[in-house]
Design goal:
Layout: H1 3-7, E1 29-31, E2 34-36, H2 39-50, H3 56-59, H4 81-87, E3 88-91, E4 95-101, H5 108-114, E5 124-130, E6 135-141, H6 147-156, H7 179-197, H8 199-203, H9 210-231, H10 233-244, H11 251-270, H12 278-301, H13 304-311, E7 315-320, E8 323-328, E9 337-340, E10 350-354, E11 357-360, H14 362-365, E12 371-373, E13 378-379, E14 384-385, E15 390-394, H15 400-410, H16 419-449, H17 454-464, H18 468-487, E16 490-492, H19 496-502, E17 506-510, H20 511-515, E18 523-526, H21 532-542, H22 548-557, E19 565-571, E20 575-580, E21 583-588, H23 590-593, E22 606-613, E23 616-624, H24 631-639, E24 643-647, H25 655-661, E25 667-669, H26 674-686, E26 691-695, H27 701-706, E27 709-714, E28 726-729, H28 736-769, H29 775-803
Helix pairs in contact: 7-9, 7-12, 9-11, 9-12, 10-11, 11-12, 11-17, 12-29, 13-18, 16-17, 16-18, 17-28, 17-29, 18-28, 18-29, 19-28, 21-22, 24-28, 28-29
């Protein structure tokens, strides 16, 4: 249903509210040919209709039933800046970012509505729902709206956030739910006692006197009530919530099976026609709850998202006692002094202590608008320093998961989940509907053949089938792959990237900083040696840049403490400039520094970096091109299944050497500026290629973003570009080929896991339809299917990764 079809449809005669489904009482409110029970439902419909969002009703009818409407004054406390600051991940004069827990998120329409908040409030810039964590990530304009209004909008739609404050100012997760253990205990108590009271029936059903038989039957009915009413309520509640919103979830057939057995058994006892099936019923509930507990524990122990986040490797330079060292952000503590260079990411909320920072919050806000920050001002985690080197003092401990979430959200609404992941989230609806139809057909068949077997057959059909295994195959396989690759220094933005890598057929490599290894390359200076003031000025300037060649030159020059740099500027693919101790210094290409290129050797195996001081050429650094260990093997491995291209900003003096390194290049393009690299990738895509690009993450940011999958190869993971889809630690470059090929292996594991799930369901249903599978055994087998698929996905993925040397 689209907007036009809703607005142009004829008047609908109904005795229920179009929005929430509640019965109409008295005079109904009519709008747009539809009836509403109250002004609130009509208003929400008007908002959806006005914003062309009536496709919301495609997901479920009456989606607005029983919204959690709250009076506005409840959230007045969010107007207090100190309170809002504890909930916001980021805030400035333009943008605010919040990550809010939304426990009421339960289905596809919830996700759709929560990811379209910007169509309900123009102040919301972007929103993303995380169904597994039951959270919504919201980026909003602080000029157009506020945190209070965002929370009120969520609450008015029925998604009231849980605003619980921890001692560190962050929202905390609710305490663990122990009700499942209590339900399991109640069901086990009922099951055990009913089995005990049923012993006479088991051993000698004919000779037991009628009075005692009837007494124990009523006692069993009494014991079964708490097992069904409390123990199994988790299934009934889930099924009811789904049906109330016109969603048939997996708990519907389970609840239906339990209800049928209980009603049949109760009727037998009350009508004195038999003892009922209370032993099987309570055993069924007990094993279903035990299976659910086992599932939750299994998933928790294998939760790839948490494990992946713990391996996220953001590192930062820390200054202690005058010396600099690199440490992971997880070891940072308030009071630590950190040094940031141009394009490095701020790892934690901190205060500027030395130097003038210019922070770009595109990583957080999605817009690259640098903000000047002076000494004493606060900078937020996730910003990127875009000037020279600065020193900050950490004021709040960082969290790796925060960077993962911001990175995952950076791509915005254009990101699309993978095909298999989408299949995983939609298969349940059709699967469950098919099971209900099969149960009805089974009942009809046994009604004609042997009515006494209907209950067992139908109950087994309803219980044994489970689409969960189908839905879990892709997330757990890809999640395990992410975790294993992360251990080897290959960090993926999200699970969909594994599938995206497997689907690429073209690979593009940058040369400098990607295939070459600047840190170990030989370096010499051509020209008159720099005098000490000029050498120190050049060293101070290049220390402010995170580019691999700048790092190499800084290490070569050495020297004492860096001098302050003003007017720092770095141009992608060209060079850097600034004023140091009164000297105007420019380092970069010949054109950027204004140095004429004379005596150029077209076969030179080096990259040339020119230097200009106060407008006069001062010589050049010759950096010998040394290719990374294993580069030839990586090219061969990827070239076996994909077309391989080279893009470089340098001259073509390395063409022959590159051709010898790997003769199979489909093309080698040189002297390409960053914008030209991006255009070259676009041309490959227009030619039908699905492009995987390896670049340095700095000069190649545009090309990485243009690629279907962009991989930033970096010596320092703190300098990666948020535009990329993956980060490859340069020290693990020799494994790049195996890592990429492993993505296709993971796809094969997914297909195998789906096959196992299908075989299980087909076999289980075959015996259930034939009445050869008891409901009790079905209750035992149902959760085992999900657990089997999860263990298979994670286990086989790990074994295959180990065979490739990745685990």
């Amino acid at each position: 249903m689209n907007f036009e079809s809703v607005s142009s449809s004829p008047v609908q005669v109904s005795n229920a509210c179009f929005h929430c489904g509640a019965p109409l009482r008295g005079d109904a409110l009519v709008h747009d040919g539809r009836s509403f029970c109250c002004a609130g439902c009509r208003t929400v419909y008007e908002i959806l209709s006005k914003n062309a969002m009536c496709e919301y009703y495609d997901f479920e009818k009456s989606p607005g039933r029983i919204p959690s409407l709250r009076p506005a004054p409840k959230y007045a406390f969010l107007d207090d800046p100190s309170v809002a600051a504890r909930l916001l991940q980021f805030s400035n004069d333009e943008v605010g970012v919040a990550d809010l827990p939304v426990p009421e998120m339960h289905c596809s329409s919830c996700i759709w509505l929560l990811e379209n908040l910007q169509r309900l409030d123009a102040g919301v810039l972007f929103s993303r729902a995380d169904f597994m964590r039951k959270r919504v990530f919201v980026r909003f304009s602080t000029r157009r709206t506020s945190l209070r209004k965002v929370v009120e909008l969520l609450a008015s739609l029925g998604y009231e956030p849980e605003l619980n404050f921890g001692t560190d100012g962050s929202t905390t997760a609710p305490p663990p739910d122990r009700s499942l253990y209590i339900r399991l205990g109640v069901a086990g108590f009922s099951f055990g006692n009913i089995m005990l009271f049923s012993l006479p029936e088991y051993f000698d059903p004919e000779r037991t006197d009628l009075a005692s038989r009837q007494f124990f039957a009523y006692l069993n009915l009494l014991l079964a009530v708490p097992a069904v009413g409390y123990g199994a309520w988790v299934f009934f509640r889930s099924a009811f919530q789904g049906l109330r919103r016109r969603i048939v979830n997996i708990d519907v057939p389970i609840a239906l099976g339990i209800g049928l057995v209980f009603l049949r058994s109760a009727a037998d006892v009350l009508l004195q026609t038999g003892p009922g099936y209370f032993d099987s019923l309570t055993g069924l509930i007990f094993f279903l709850l035990l299976g659910r507990l086992f599932q939750s524990k299994t998933y928790e122990s294998l939760n790839f998202e948490r494990t992946y986040r713990s391996y996220f490797p953001l590192a930062v330079t820390v200054r202690k006692e005058g010396a600099e060292t690199t440490v992971p952000i997880t070891s940072l503590r308030p009071g630590d002094r950190i040094v940031l260079r141009n394009r490095e990411v701020v790892p934690a909320d901190a205060v500027v202590m030395e130097g003038d920072a210019t922070v770009d919050y595109a990583f957080v806000t999605g817009e690259a608008v640098p903000e000047p920050k002076r000494v004493g001002e606060v900078v937020y985690a996730g910003g990127r320093q875009t000037g020279g080197a600065v020193e900050l003092e950490v004021v709040k401990e960082p969290a790796a998961s925060r960077f993962v979430q911001m990175w995952d959200s950076f791509g915005g609404a254009t990101e699309r989940p993978g095909r298999l992941l989408t299949l995983s989230t939609t298969v349940g609806k059709w699967f469950t509907g098919g099971i209900l139809l099969l149960a009805a057909a089974t009942a009809a068949g046994w009604w004609l053949l042997d009515p006494a077997r209907i209950l067992d057959a139908v109950t087994a059909v309803l219980i044994v089938a489970c689409p969960c295994a189908l839905a879990l195959a892709a997330p757990f396989t890809f999640g395990t792959a992410m975790r294993l690759l992360g251990r080897r220094g290959f960090y993926l933005r999200n699970a969909a990237v594994v599938e995206a890598i497997a689907g690429t057929d073209t690979v593009v490599f940058d040369k400098t900083g990607t295939l070459t290894e600047p840190a170990s390359s030989g370096l010499g200076f051509a020209g008159k040696p720099l005098d000490p003031p000029a050498a120190r000025a050049v060293a101070s300037l290049v220390r402010g840049s995170s580019h691999p060649l700048s790092r190499r030159i800084a290490a070569h020059l050495g020297g004492g403490a860096a001098l302050p740099v003003s007017e720092f500027r770095e141009v992608e693919g060209e060079g850097i400039s600034g004023v140091v101790d009164g000297l105007s210094v420019v380092v970069g290409s010949a054109a950027f520094t204004g140095t004429p290129e004379t005596g150029e050797d077209p076969e030179a195996r080096r990259t040339r970096v020119y230097v200009s001081v106060d407008g006069r050429p001062a010589g050049r650094f010759d950096v010998e091109n040394r290719y990374r260990a294993g580069a030839a093997r990586v090219l061969r491995e990827l070239g076996s299944a994909r077309r391989v291209h080279l893009l470089s900003g340098d001259g073509d003096g390395e063409r022959a050497r590159l051709g010898a390194l790997y003769p199979g290049f489909a093309s080698m393009l040189f002297r390409h500026a960053p914008a030209e690299k991006r255009e070259a990738v676009r041309v490959l895509q227009q030619g039908g290629g699905t492009v995987l690009m390896f670049g340095d993450g700095l000069n190649d940011a545009g090309a990485l973003k243009q690629s279907d999958v962009g991989v930033a190869v970096t010596e320092d993971v703190g300098t990666f570009s948020p535009a990329c889809d993956a980060i490859l630690d340069a020290k693990e470059f020799d494994r790049a080929g195996a890592m990429v090929l492993f993505a296709r292996t993971a796809m094969l594991v997914v297909y195998a896991a789906i096959g196992i799930s299908l075989v299980y369901n087909v076999l289980g249903l075959w015996f259930a339809v034939r009445a050869e599978l008891s409901p009790l055994m079905a209750a035992v087998l149902m959760p085992l299917s999900s657990i089997t698929v999860v263990l298979f996905s994670t286990g086989v993925t790990t074994v295959l990764a180990r065979r490739r040397g990745l685990a």
